[in-house]
Design a protein that fits this description.
The chain is about 0% helix and about 50% strand. It contains no helices and eleven strands.
């Protein structure tokens, strides 16, 4: 399974962005996101990687970091094998490299080390 993240950019505080994470690979009988959990993590300069949001593919359950609740929405598109992160009311402290990751399972984990598949990061910069 390969993940490709995109959608980052330079925006002003209060603006919105939508990140995409497209999965490829898998088999004819199992789509790449089947039975998997997909998260977004981010890492700001000089800081550790942190959990942002996660979604279970089977039931669509979601979880969010407290810092983004009410502003960010994670969603999935079965037909496109894509997970989105809609980010509204962006703040300068949201500036970071955002990466998507997936693991086999049915519950969102906020721990990066348990995720097996990672996409390259996409940079989000929010100016004040």
């Amino acid at each position: 399974v390969q993940l490709q993240a995109s959608g980052g950019g330079l925006v002003r505080a209060g603006d919105s962005l939508r990140l995409s994470c497209v999965a490829t690979g898998g088999t004819l009988s199992e789509r790449p996101f089947s039975k998997r959990v997909v998260n977004w993590f981010r890492q700001a300069p000089g800081k550790e990687r942190e959990f942002v949001a996660g979604i279970t593919w089977s039931g669509g359950s979601t979880d969010y970091a407290e810092s983004v609740k009410g502003r960010f929405t994670i969603s999935r598109d079965d037909a496109e094998n894509t997970v989105y992160l809609q980010m509204n009311s962006l703040k300068p402290e949201d500036t970071a490299v955002y990466s998507c990751a997936a693991r086999t399972g049915f519950m969102v984990s906020k721990t990066a080390s348990v995720y097996d598949y990672w996409g390259q990061g996409t940079l989000v910069t929010v100016s004040s």
